[in-house]
Specification:
This protein is of the alpha/beta class. The protein has two domains: about 15-215, HUPs (Rossmann fold, 3-Layer(aba) Sandwich), CATH 3.40.50; about 260-390, Aldolase class I (TIM Barrel, Alpha-Beta Barrel), CATH 3.20.20. It contains 13 helices and 14 strands. Helix 2 (about 35-45) crosses helix 3.
Length: about 425
């Protein structure tokens, strides 16, 4: 076929690339799942594509197709720590049956689980946040390495998926491939029967769509196959899928501005909005005065929240409630305003806060080493030279201390070997 290969990571949205995706969707018959998958792997994104599989009720169909094209295709499974034991066994069954050589389990960050879900019941209080830390966060840095990825989504599953095409161009100019988009439930079952594919152990027990155990229930006769997912919640998707029409989940952010643990990463937090409710807000940095006015409501709110500290705020006012915050954002409105350094030292040294302390505002390369000395562990950076300096590891270092911080720095001009033992 003569369609030119598409550029993988353009610097900005490419209209020709979008037209190419439209052309791709016109090239294949609705039921030509194998043709769609083969062309995506061999022609559109050779060596730059992966598959994300839930190893759920219908996963055998897509993985069987993959085995016919490339058994070495990277296959990622989100091991949330909440799966049925039967699902974990099914992963091994399909891996061996289809000869898949690169099946990898992705686990949530233990620190995130300890902070946001210490009792393991976050799924019940806030399923969106549970999916975020157990699925979205582990998956994003992996999919960012590829120009595209394959999903098992189908049009019949939900109303939002009713317009799903074979090929999607995402907001960050990557390509999602949905080979089974036009398959119906009967098509899936017919394919399984034709090829003698092993069923998920729970399928015959009434589980027609299978995710994490706490959020999956049996589907009654006549119900939508996904009716058993998040039953009782106003929730239809886990959040890892984002469509061309934005109807399923919000698009990924094109540029990641949060520098943390040595890399720019997706930022789950946002600024507080006037329309937010203290009772239901989640992943928002709440201004100190707003928190104090609505303290009882925020303390009873089960969702993760952060605190936003401006230069004029007295962080001492919230000392007793610091453990409530998953992140504290300290504002640096201008390069010359140093009050945020004192706030950071109060939090980390005097109050013993061990969560994320981030700098927001006028964050420049010269400041970052000083901020780190004061206990700041994350930085929201929009200044392009500072971004480059962080990514290349070319920040200035501070080796001489006239005003030492903490207990390990020694001021210039002293002779610590002559000091008396403390």
């Amino acid at each position: 076929m003569g369609l030119p290969k598409l550029a993988i990571t353009p610097a900005k949205p490419d209209k020709l690339r979008a037209l190419g995706v439209i052309a791709l969707n016109g090239m294949f018959d609705e039921m030509d799942a194998l043709g769609v998958l083969r062309y995506a792997i061999e022609e559109v994104l050779p060596g730059d594509i992966a598959i994300v599989s839930s190893f759920g009720a219908d996963s055998a169909v897509l993985l069987h197709l993959v085995s016919q094209v490339d058994r070495a295709l990277p296959v990622y499974f989100l091991e949330t720590g909440k799966h049925f034991a039967e699902t974990l066994a099914y992963v091994e069954t399909l891996r061996q049956r289809f000869g898949l050589t690169r099946v990898t389990a992705l686990h949530p960050d233990p620190a995130d689980v300890a902070r946001f879900d210490p009792d393991g019941q976050l799924w019940e209080r806030d399923p969106d946040s549970c999916c975020h830390i157990r699925k979205t966060e582990p998956l994003e840095p992996v999919t960012a390495q590829f120009g595209g990825w394959v999903t098992g989504r189908k049009r019949y599953q939900t109303a939002e998926r009713g317009v799903l095409p074979h090929f999607e161009l995402t907001s960050d100019d990557r390509i999602k491939i949905n080979p089974l988009a036009y398959f119906s439930d009967s098509d899936v079952n017919a394919y399984k029967a034709q090829h003698g594919l092993p069923e998920h152990p729970l399928y015959d027990k009434g589980y027609k769509s299978i995710g994490c155990a706490p959020c999956t229930s049996v589907v009654a006769a006549g119900e939508d196959p996904r009716a058993g997912r998040w039953r009782g919640f106003n929730k239809k998707e886990c959040g890892i899928h984002f469509d061309f029409n934005g109807a399923i989940a919000k698009p990924m952010i094109g540029q990641k501005n949060l520098w943390k643990d040595g890399a720019f990463t997706a930022d789950p937090f946002r600024a507080w909005a006037e329309t937010d409710s203290p009772e239901t807000a989640r992943y928002a940095h709440v201004p100190v005065d707003v928190f104090l006015r609505n303290r009882v409501a925020f303390l009873s709110n089960p969702h993760p929240i952060g605190l936003h500290v401006s230069p004029a705020d007295q962080v001492e006012q919230v000392e007793a409630d610091l453990l409530r915050f998953a992140s504290i954002a300290i504002a640096f409105p201008a390069f010359t305003d140093g009050r945020g350094y004192s706030t950071a030292r109060l939090l980390s040294e005097r109050f013993g806060y061990t969560g994320e302390i981030r700098a927001v505002g006028d964050v420049l390369a010269d400041q970052v080493p000083l901020m780190r000395r004061c206990g700041i562990t994350a930085f929201v950076v929009t200044h392009e030279p500072t971004r480059r300096a962080l990514e290349s590891g070319q920040l200035a270092t501070v080796n001489l201390f006239y005003q030492p911080v903490g207990t390990t720095e020694v001021p210039v001009g002293t002779r610590p070997f002559l000091r008396r033992a403390q």
